[in-house]
Amino acid sequence: MSSGCVLFGSHSHWYAPAPYETTVNFLAADGEGSADALAAAESQYAVAREADEAGNASCIDRYYAAAVQVWPAYVPVATTEERPAELYRAAVQGFIESANKYGRFNRAAGVLLVNGQIVPVAFRGFVWRPEDFATFMPVGAYESSRLQNRYASAGVGVPYVVLTTNPPRYPFVRSSQPFAATAVLGPTPAMGGRFTLQFYDPLRTTVSEGGAPIAKDLTAPLAYAASQENDDWVVNFLRPGHDDTLDGLHMHEPFQPQKIPVVLIHGLASDPLTWLQLENDLRAQPAIFERYQFWYFRYDTGGPFLGSAARLRRELATIHQVYDPARCNPNMSRIVLIGHSMGGLVGQLQVTYSGDTVWQAAATQPFNTILTDPATRAELAAAFFFQPSPDVTRVVYIATPHQGSSDATRFVGRLSSAMVEERPIAEARREQLVRDNPDAFREEVRRRIPTSVDLLEPDSLILQSTQRLPYRQGVALNTIIGDYRWANSWGPSDGVVSIESASLNGSQTEATVDARHTGVLRNPETSREVSAILMWHAVGN
Prior knowledge:
Layout: E1 13-15, H1 32-53, H2 59-74, H3 83-101, E2 105-106, E3 110-112, E4 118-119, E5 121-124, E6 135-138, E7 141-143, E8 152-153, E9 158-163, E10 178-188, E11 194-200, E12 216-217, H4 220-227, H5 232-238, E13 248-251, E14 260-265, H6 276-283, H7 286-289, E15 292-298, H8 305-323, E16 335-340, H9 342-348, H10 357-362, H11 374-384, E17 392-398, H12 411-419, H13 424-436, H14 443-446, H15 452-455, H16 461-467, E18 476-482, E19 485-487, E20 491-493, H17 499-502, E21 509-513, H18 524-538
């Protein structure tokens, strides 16, 4: 699979934060008044831990009391690791965890203490609903080969990763979606100084209700997503259609009509996690984040990319019908596609006219003369005959093999292609087409349904036909190319795709970065180039 975009690499890890130790001496090196307050808060916390371990819901009240009592000492040192800050964060974590565990956390009303008092709860700045806050995980240590930068800052509150493990409420948003939140248990001026539990969206909020900067960890949800990765993409590459429930167009947040969609399309033998580093860099820039929403298209990369492109066309049309049926939202007609490697070819087929060019590369007879059943005819028509999407106005190609990849013709490429299993239904359709339409199809299709590796061979007639397709007028193109090494057989390349193959006439810009094929997406120069392109696009360039 040398032409693949992600090969077997190290897995990511997510480590839950270590439990707060009650043996820490909070009285050392403090003034007498401060020491008394800390001693009282520490006492409350110690009792809370004991009650919690005994299964007594009164721990909720004790955690709450510990956070309230340490608050005055906490605020001056909130951005440090000093003892009051550690105690406050531990008390808030215990309060939220125990309130959930004992069924006393009502997202709409607040937290019901055992003494009958209700601690109000509020959610500030989120595009999510309160009922979407299903699982709370305090941010812990993490590492991932997919993430090089961590965007976090100190402030008041406790950073969380929240999971929406409830059934999805928004079309194209999957359940169990992680997002960032910062919890602050403190006095609220609007409520006369009463202590409330406030959750802030760190992507959209900078200060608490009290005016203090909030703690942020924007990278944590992406790191958590990386920690859940597995090798399903290998199975899906070798067995296209193995799990279609994962495929399709997805959002990481509910739809936001005021933002321009950016659709990220991964490459061969890869999955949407390949975009984590780029998304991490882009979301951390307010000028980008306030203008764009990021969507992902996932597809089985072992099957022919013509079928994947057809599915993306259908889903782009459907998502527009769902969220803008009257077509009155101009942002929905300014979609940007960013494709890495073969994902760029999937993106190209969203903005070009097929005519009968692609069909003639696969067959020698007119389409309307082919004998087959209605379902197969419809599938063939969707793959080989298409119009450009009226809603996509820019495509950014990253290390895209427009003229194929020589790696696809090497032994390892042919081996990986041979290992890709045909779906039984697809194999039966191909056999029917060949049997009932003798000599109607060219050898590339007749011998087997071509895999994506087959279609990346430079001598593929189908690939060559896609190079001749005209673009819709008004579509802007940009190209980012990896330049890592020189090969005698194809000259400078990123190790998989030659610069000649990745170049494209008609691109507004062409940037070259010093990176391997799989490393182009993690290169800082790529992040800067994509950021610049998106800013040009935002202002209409």
